[in-house]
Amino acid sequence: KRPFSQTSPWRLQTKELDEDALKSLKVNKKRLMKDLHHTCQWGTGKRWGKAETETGMTRLALSDSDKQARDWFVKTTEDLGCKVTVDEMGNIFAVRPGLKNDKPATFAGSHLDTQPTGGRYDGILGVHAGIEMIKVLNENWIETEYPVGVVNWTNEEGARFPMSMSSSGVWAGSIPLAAAHNLREVHPGTATMAEELSRIGYLGSVAASHEATLMAAHFELHIEQGPLLEMANKKVGVVIGVQAYKWLTVNVKGRDTHTGTTDLKSRADALLAASKMILHSHRLATAHNALASTGILNLKPGSTNTVPGDVSFSLDIRAPADETVASVLALVQQDFPKIAAGENLSGLNDGGTPSLPCTVSITEDFDSPATTFHASCIDAVTRAAQRVLGPDGKSLTMEMTSGAGHDSVYTSKRCPTSMIFIPCREGMSHNPEEFCKEEDCAIGAEVLLHSVLRFDRMREV
Amino acid sequence: KRPFSQTSPWRLQTKELDEDALKSLKVNKKRLMKDLHHTCQWGTGKRWGKAETETGMTRLALSDSDKQARDWFVKTTEDLGCKVTVDEMGNIFAVRPGLKNDKPATFAGSHLDTQPTGGRYDGILGVHAGIEMIKVLNENWIETEYPVGVVNWTNEEGARFPMSMSSSGVWAGSIPLAAAHNLREVHPGTATMAEELSRIGYLGSVAASHEATLMAAHFELHIEQGPLLEMANKKVGVVIGVQAYKWLTVNVKGRDTHTGTTDLKSRADALLAASKMILHSHRLATAHNALASTGILNLKPGSTNTVPGDVSFSLDIRAPADETVASVLALVQQDFPKIAAGENLSGLNDGGTPSLPCTVSITEDFDSPATTFHASCIDAVTRAAQRVLGPDGKSLTMEMTSGAGHDSVYTSKRCPTSMIFIPCREGMSHNPEEFCKEEDCAIGAEVLLHSVLRFDRMREV
Ligand SMILES: NC(=O)NCCC(=O)O
Ligand SMILES: NC(=O)NCCC(=O)O
């Protein structure tokens, strides 16, 4: 047995704890949920139920309410004894010292930003579970071998600045800093990410880089956002990877003309062409067992009696395998120009007057290839889940691939990473009615705690 | 011969003029075009050519630039000796006294507002031709039998406040004042028409009513906005009526869900359903020889990775006969709910994964039945065109029905009305590149002048 550390305020070292002692380490469910709902006062969204907490969230990245949640995060983690740093992307790292403080921390992380009509759990739960982990360690006087930390990543959603996981992407060296800084908000389209970081006081001085902020590992608790755990009656998903996805912007150009004086054959109707493309992308996705979705569509000039000459829309293509996404993309690139030109692809033109050609341009804004998480982190999560769930652990757990992207995708490029999923009601997410049971939130947070502790004791350096 | 009027500054009465003298009354083409381009400094739009005047217009109703154009209109017509009144809809009436001033004026009128990406001629030419008419009367010392006037109607385009001809509609008693005052702008959707009238100082005190501002007749010069005159090599269109149209708002409700975790069959994708409806409306229009157009589409929440749960779009349906518009509307009302519910109408679902149902609601915002103009005004225009065009007059003129709505639609409900069309390049309108030859503008203005003078001498009261 090693002596108690002289420098650390927490003196019971993890190496001293046996399995039974570790098993008894529990998160405080009430406190976890109280904290979570407390921070949901900043950016409260649409009400869907009667209970006080039955509202969604509207906390777009770098908005005023995001600033308030961030300020709370910084104050809370500092009060818990963490050292807090903010990098050039506004990522906030809170580190609790361990025995060997010259080594990088093991992180728990997620994000506090939400969709425009998001819920209270997506991202938020993961950050709160990280804070709860620190609280449990503190109140049990536990000194970890290495430092442990909690990270709040900026603009994970990609909802306000249209690139998901943009700031973990910069940290990983996968997205250039300038590209992320220059991202312009979707609505109303005036501010850039750098401007907003600076405006809310979170343009930090630390380089946004895995070399400036080292990570020994990254564990992320997240709600599944899909229906699989609930349908299978499981409590914990051990996430072994993330499916591939690409984001495109499609711009269709026709000609502004009068709706009352321009006969159908003399039109170059960019919206009619875009409608056909959206329908076609749905058919392509169906044929390839992939997903294709349009979440943003803007048109110009936007007048009832003008045929729109300019339509832009987003296209989000996903599939488990990179090859599938590539195949759908290739068909989009091949077929959209034909649709614009007026070819009768899959009978889209049947029964409609042929008209003048439009043109189309397609840009790829974002690419996240299929991700595989790290075997030792997956193992840590599997064992932690069994520790938390007890004898039934095996039957209440399942391995799964994430449909959504997460900051863990980018951390996995630079350090061992894996994720923990918990079920959410009807798989609903990116919706105000997103809901997770308190019990499940607590199970997830406890698995996170034990995953980090297990990794802390297993790690080599 | 009657004595010169003692009270009028213009002493040569029209009754004294014979055909030959009338024939020699010409508009000043240079002055007309100079004035027109002068006022296009307010709201100058997109440049499309090198010449100074080769830009479009962006002068939305009741915008700051519309106020500047209005101020110019008021000052100019007052300086020409007109009495100017402004009604509660911001319609501006400028009246030049005649011999019998206890009787209503014969008006020339159109509008100074434009589309978001409009041209320099649509509406603007008609107002300027009215002012040029006053100038020609003044400089030739002509006293008309009855007063003549020029009217600038508010928000004819319906582009900013989504109801076309809204203010002539109130004047005619066809649209309730409150409905027009409460119209909310399309973008960004904050201000109402009443607020904007008041803000720019054009919420007049005169009742917006055909009973408060009497009209003996309304003549409107306008560009055709379609290709028929140009294709037929005609100089003047004698407009005998206007086709029917209706404006609808279609709202599709689905469910916000995550694009990465929601499989295709678990979606209620409001944009996919809306795309099918837009395609279907194009097919319905084709089948009925009608027009169907969507110029506005808004969706919520508007995030790349959220399947939109809420889409609203405009639908503009037109046809020469009321019955045709009614038939298309009936099919829209019958078919859109089926498309929303997931029925495979005309193979729209072929090759796509069936998904959860959406719902749809359709509201009719505006209805303009087919209009027939007044025989004696049509006659006045026909004769005026022959007077202006000379021996070739008959072969350079054709009767036609307007595809676009105009304030003359509403004036025709309360006073004898007709319109004069001139050709525009390639029939292009609601487009910055809208263009009319100076020569054609002058011909149109001259036909307007002579139509008004002819009517002035023909009228009974
Ligand atoms: N967790 C989550 O919804 N992330 C957004 C990134 C994505 O689009 O998958
Ligand atoms: N002239 C014109 O473009 N008016 C707008 C009304 C319509 O939509 O037809």
UniProtKB/TrEMBL annotation, chains A, B:
The keyword Cytoplasm does not apply. The keyword Hydrolase applies. Residues 243-339 form the Peptidase M20 dimerisation domain. InterPro entries: Amidase_Cbmase, Bact_exopeptidase_dim_dom, Peptidase_M20, Peptidase_M20_dimer. Keywords: Hydrolase. Coiled coil: none annotated. GO terms for molecular function: hydrolase activity, acting on carbon-nitrogen (but not peptide) bonds, in linear amidines. It comes from the Eukaryota. Belongs to the peptidase M20A family. This is N-carbamoyl-L-amino acid hydrolase.
